[in-house]
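User: Could you go from structure to sequence for me? I need the amino acid at each position, not a summary. Structure tokens:
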């Protein structure tokens, strides 16, 4: 999805995100990153969990951060997660996070 289409979806309240794996100190780590405009703010959800810890649900990281602008939210994703902005896509079916929670 091109950047303009992505920004349009986000501005219209659609949740975008991605789920992926990466190596963390030679161990497989799974991550979810989501972004949604909610009540005038932009909420970014990030979680990271080692594959070996999935059954016990012991996350290395799980947080929702709120931003005033879409640019600040995208910069945070680029600089603080392993997600790439180009990988974010509208969520179909199950969402990555519930934006009403903080």
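Assistant: Here is the amino acid at each position, in order:
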């Amino acid at each position: 999805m091109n950047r303009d289409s992505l920004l349009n979806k986000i501005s219209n309240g659609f949740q975008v995100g991605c789920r992926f794996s990466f190596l963390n100190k030679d161990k497989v780590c799974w991550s979810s990153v989501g972004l949604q405009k909610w009540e005038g703010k932009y909420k970014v959800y990030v979680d990271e969990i080692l594959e070996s810890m999935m059954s016990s649900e012991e996350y290395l990281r799980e947080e929702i951060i709120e931003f005033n602008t879409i640019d600040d939210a995208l910069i945070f994703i680029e600089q603080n997660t392993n997600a790439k902005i180009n990988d974010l896509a509208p969520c179909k079916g199950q969402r990555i996070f519930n934006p009403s929670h903080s």
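One structural detail worth keeping in mind: The longest strand covers residues 27-38.
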